Amino acid sequence: MASPPQDPPRDCQFCPRLAEFRDANRAAHPDWFNAPVPAFGVPDCELLIVGLAPGLQGANRTGRPFTGDYAGDLLYPTLIKFCWAEGAYGQSPDDGLRMVKSRITNAVRCVPPQNKPTGAEQKACRPFLVDEINALPSLRTIIALGRIAHEAVLSTLGLRKKDHPFGHAACHPLPDGRRLIDSYHCSRYNVNTGRLTTAMFEAVFNLV
Q1: Of 43, 109, 73, 77, whose CA–CA distance to 202 is shortest?
Q2: Contact 67/79 with Cβ under 8 angstroms?
Q3: What separation, in Å, do the N-terminal and C-terminal C-alpha atoms of the chain show?
Q4: Most buried among 25, 109, 156, 206, by the most CB within 10 A?
Q5: Hey, which residues does 173 pair with through a beta bridge?
Q6: CA 137/CA 120 separation, integer angstroms
Q7: pTM listed for this prediction
Q8: What are the CA-CA distances from residue 12 to residues 26, 88, 91, 118, 181 (Å)?
């Protein structure tokens, strides 16, 4: 049996810039989570959703991925509609929402300034995504939200980017029999600019 996925320690120092930003946020907002955000969901999942990094006033504040900011307002209702989650999304980790055969994590676990992790920070956090994927024996499908998450998954699996180009609703069969499906990130910017619509996002879950 696979071991449970390991999360970074609360005072992880792998990325000095992110640790400094985290400490500044702890001083400014002592009631926020302000730590590497753990994955949310069940370990016997069939579906893993990989995002970029915690949002400053979203997961960094609440301690649950995609909770408390705009991206969760599209992601969680979609998961509920497609029966990958149960309950009601209330923008809070105590809303009672429950994941069903699914799990959510981020390529980078700590909030980065301007929501832009560096390449070195992505690489430093990669062992946690490697461990996450290796510890999910029932995993069949990975959804990558955005190009950076897509490339993080490929690097984690040791696959070449040129063989698996990013594209919204692109489905990539993987050598181990699983699938990687891409989606534009469900951010406020992408939705407000029309790059991603609800119908387009739901089309990704239809592929699953």
Answers
A1: 77
A2: no
A3: 25
A4: 109
A5: 179
A6: 29
A7: 0.95
A8: 14, 32, 26, 16, 30
Q: Which two tokens stand for residue 25?
A: 């946020």
pLDDT digits (tens, 9 = 90+) for 163-191: 999 999 999 999 999 999 999 999 999 99
- Which residues are paired to 89 by β-bridges? none
How far from 116 is each of 31, 111, 119, 121, CA to CA, in Å? Answer: 24, 9, 9, 10
Q: Does residue 196 contact residue 169 with C-beta atoms inside 8 Å?
A: no
Among residues 204, 20, 39, the alpha carbon closest in space to that of 136 is found at: 39
How is domain 16-207 classified at the CATH fold level? Uracil-DNA Glycosylase, subunit E (3.40.470)
- Please tell me the distance from the alpha carbon of residue 94 to that of residue 6, in angstroms, as a whole number: 22
How crowded is residue 51: how many other Cβ atoms within 10 Å of its Cβ? 27
Per-residue model confidence as pLDDT tens digits over 46-63: 999 999 999 999 999 999
Q: CA–CA separation, 186 vs 75, rounded Å? A: 7
DSSP 85: E
Radius of gyration of the chain (CA): 16
